[in-house]
Batch of 3 targets.
Target 1
Amino acid sequence: MPDAACASLRIMASHIPALSLPDVPRTDSVFSVLSGFHSLESGVPGLSKVILDKLNMKDYGEYRAAVEGKVKGIPFRNYKEMFKKMEETFEFCTGCNKLPVHLTEGQTLKRCAKCLNVYYCTKECQRNDWPQHKKVCKKLRLVAIDRLVEWLMFTGDLPFPTEKWSKLAAEVKNWDDWLPMQRDLTPRLDGILSGANMATLWKNASRPRPDDSDLQRSLWRIQSEFLSRVLTVGMAIQHFGLDPYAKAFTVHIAGASHNETMGARLTDYDELNKMFPGHQGVEIVMVGPEVVDGPIVRPPLRAFGPRQRVFISAYRGLYHQFWEELVEKEEAAKPDLVVGFHPGFHASQGLIEGWLPTLLLLRDFNIPSCFTLYSEMELERSLQILLELEVHIRDSGPNPFTSQKPEQVQSSPNKTPVHCNSHYIRFQGLLPQEDLEGPGFDN
């Protein structure tokens, strides 16, 4: 689950669709929001209730209503209150997990002066925690800046426009190849730095405004997270040897959630136009039970429309349901590629059960598929599950277009921050028969 601060911003920024969610956090849910709440609660008991309180919600039912779009927004009186309550969702002692409500009279939580991100109830807790915290303190400082600057994604300041590609897609293998095509980013970044929304942000945030150089780097990190998804799709197209110039092309984003769809714009995948100029048309269909209502929620195409354009649509439901209800009835095109961003099926029984029909469908229909993960640990656990399902793994490893924005584990801030799309698995079809026949088996 993304950290609660970002989640509260997203709830305010957009309506989220009606979903049938349980009333309490649990691990057997196919909904990542509920699994995320359970993870918070298991890490810091009472933290999920603090988040609800700061969102002015009485219980998980009200949170569900916000996620379902049944409330018109969180009733904060002003930006200062909003940013203050966002910060308060991070206020617990990193040393002993004590929440403000459990402090003794006269005790207050003190924030680390270096990262401005973690809190301690006593100097003793801070001293005892320092051997662990010093390993991540510098990076958590970046996290604290980014989670505030990310608000500019909802004001329209980000993402900033990108340039036409001066290289062929096959020549752009990583960020070091992509960035030089953008020429000088400084004018675009300076325009955001001097804008009214940036001024509003730091006027109301509960911390000093960082230096412009820090803010420039933060803007780029957030931009990279946005572009990481698009460039990962483009990378998968090339790795599978697929040709968007030969015919109109359909990509399904399986397991799409509020992370990808809240505030989503019809232009979010237009970088593919620059990656494959003159293509025959690309359709992106986002499919998932947590798809957020918005302009992209519209029927998929049966036959592709204008060439050299990217068309985005979305469907709210599990992927195998989408397949049965639309693809099998030829009301949606069969995919040339399926991509999943952080499917998380390694994380809980509920998520693997929700994903199982989709994974078997992708295997049995021999569909080129690419999933991304947050870490090497997730990669290893996900590979194990796919191999148990006899899926043919084509390759896996670090993603050259990983997000540059570090993500904090909210309930365990001293864990090494992770990055969106940091690793990938590329798979297609059933494991070849010779790989299934191990030594010592009587076939």
Target 2
Amino acid sequence: MDVFLELKTALETFPFQLPLTLLLIITGTVLLGLVLRIGRKTAPYPPGPKGLPIIGNMNMMEQLTHRGLAKLAKQYGGVLHLRMGFLHMVAISNAEAARQVLQVQDNIFSNRPATIAISYLTYDRADMAFAHYGPFWRQMRKICVIKLFSRKRAESWNSVRDEVDTIVRSVEASLGNPVNVGEFVFNLTKNIIYRAAFGSTSQEGQDEFISILQEFSKLFGAFNIADFVPFLGWLDPQGLHKTLVKARAALDSFIDKIIHEHIEKKRNFNCDQETDMVDELLNFYGHHTKLNNDSDDLHNSVRLTKDNIKAIIMDVMFGGTETVASGIEWAMAELMRSPDDLRRVQQELADVVGLERRVEEADLEKLTFLKCVVKETLRMHPPIPLLLHETAEDASVCGYFVPKGSRVMINAWAIGRDKDAWEDPEAFKPSRFLNPHVPDFKGNNFEFIPFGSGRRSCPGMQLGLYTLELAVAHLLHCFTWGLPDGMKPSELDTSDVFGLTAPRASRLVAVPSKRLLCPL
């Protein structure tokens, strides 16, 4: 078939028409690509659905979710290939393939893919989440691990305890009435992260910042044809650039003011003042990004610009708000659907803590079944269902060719529900983790990777886990929970919505009653 007829056929399925000039440009580029590949012998691409000419599998965009890719994996296997325009995508849905990507060839797969929108909104990858792997990224990660999320940084952990106290009081004020558990826990994690980042316990400015976050989230996930046909970027056929400029300007205005206030505070330093994440990052501030590999001292080894600081703060807010809130809500929902497990974990709390006092941090290590509940929740509902990586060079996975620049999607959701790795994987069974031989996310068990693994694993895992465990422990220990309007546990909705995370499709609503004998 004539290539122009193929192009016409392919674009009939596309959501909008492109001018003839662009069709000619696309056709010429495709032909050039074919010529460059002549004579190059490689291993085969992974199996996958046959694509249309030029656009490949772009008519399957709606299937690029954790559930959609899991369904395709049942048909094509644990390593499958899709071509979205000029972009190669590989989905990983089993533990062995994940091990090859995250451990065996970690150096090749350590980059993160970034769309045009993500690159612009992160100041050209000035953050840690999307920066290419290399010396500067390693120093930024070290700053985050040591200075922002470390147990030595008491302020972050104190904010968790204080905000958990606040949610307990809020629930107490609604005893006997239906409460929106999802909204409560989202406000909990939002307040924790906002306070840890900016040092403010005030609600002032929070609504504005959450609005900015929501706009960023929408733009991160927005479809842009130039992401798949790169040479269309300069044309901006969808007019996305103006929206990106406006969104980043709003962030600049908000955080630049906060950075200025923190710089002024440092000039009038009070040793009794608590520091926040902005203070910690400002200790590395310089007018130009700079890396000094000769220094062993972290403060002398790297300099961060304002763009770096703003981008890292956005990473923290995105990574720590909805992910943890979703985990708490899913844990509560799964327990509401499993009354026997709910009774068991509450009995453990009564035995270990007693009904005369609240849960304390020292109690957490003794609450074995509670930890099993958290692990089972993370297995079935990982904080980020699709872990995104990008190849820095041509690679081979399970005998299949993965070209340089490919987007690799590790389906942590599907791997956690793989029937070859887990017994009765679709059932919520916390007791499975009482078996010491069951995979644990803290080791090299690639059957269970809710926080990723290798170089790009989640740097805030410990703080996130602490928040999840402490919040769930308090909600279960302080209150007895029932479903509203005579709803049966089996009637509770378990569908989710795909995004950065996979939260419940509908918020969990439940009726609390006081359980403890002591004042809350």
Target 3
Amino acid sequence: MTEKDLIIKNGEMLDQQLAAAKKTGNLVVKDATSDEDVIRKTFEVGKGIFRLFPAFVPRRFGKAGHRLKLHPDDYFAFGMDRGSITERWFASTIAAQNGETAKADEGMAYVCVDYNSDEKFSLRTAVKVLREELVGAELMDRYNGWPMYSKFFDNENPLFHHLHLTFEAAARVGKLGKPECYYFPKQLNNYFGEANYTYFGFDPDVEPEEIKERIRKFADDDTRITELSRAYRVELGTGWYTPAGVIHAPASVLTYEPQWNSDVNSVYENIVSGEVYPPEMLDEECPPDKKGDIDYIFGLLDWEKNVDPHYRKHYFRPPITASESESYIEKWITYANEHIAAKELTIYPGQTVIIKDDTAYGCIFIQGHGKFGIYDCEAATLLRFGQQSTDEFFVSEKAARTGVTITNLSRVEPLVVLKHFGPNCPNVAEKASDN
């Protein structure tokens, strides 16, 4: 089965789940429209740009870092049994894999029809209706839609040492692999939480049997798996690329994370900051006959990448200037991989620019206020759960190529936006030394 076939199959399954959830009301957005006329009119009025509704996501693990600009009273909006809200997803046409009690559309992006109306429709539905008009012919042909999303993840404590499955391993359970990227925005990190460092892979001298020995006792004792790893201190304003199959334990720093359309994990660490994780997190993405099979679980690792003696050289991503003028500067912050890309665009105070890109993209404003096409744009200060915002947008391929007019209405503060792209974004920096 090809990657596109898997995407179509998983999409059909999600559509069935969404249809069933609509009947029971088990949705975050219960009254979304699928009216094609409404979708097309919103697209036309926005001149090819959609304004998106904030998609906050709870997790059953970890502690909220409280840097998502969400109201302090709303971090348990999904209920105490679901855990705190630790993520906000952007431009997502898939749902979070959040367990049996999750709402069917958690993490999915919805489009706001108007500032004066609560009417919405999902970005997923918009892609089906508008197809090439929205994401372009290449992405429709290769992936049958929009193939990536981004998120902020925001934990007070570090995450467990875990990996995301390679495309080959994920295909065995009917899913997609998940490469991902990190960027640490200065605007959203006024404190670092419990741990300002991220573990990647394992020490090059570690032997496979040492890893297997640790994970064999997952259900019985502390694996202390990071004793065999190596950590890098977070440097704000930089990032990393994490290939699928590379184990990592992210820092307790709010992180902007462009990634592939997938949500598959294998967790090797069972105790973090005193929080204990259940054994099923080790093998929940294994075929039924491979659950508990330590050799198979170990095989989910891309071993050569995990013990790369030059890991920082190959996967650290300092920003690289893409273009600049007296009015703005734009930098590559996610690059040098075949799946996803991202830029940080800064418009200087009082300036108006027209920014052109060759492909569709999603974006999130993280500083300042101004105009983005026909819309007001402003970085969120404090959002109530369920409230509209005007900080997140999706730009169609045609609108991106025509150019988006952006104005910074502040006389003193820059206007900063992060932009996430799929695999068809051209002219992406190919290595960190390009600058």
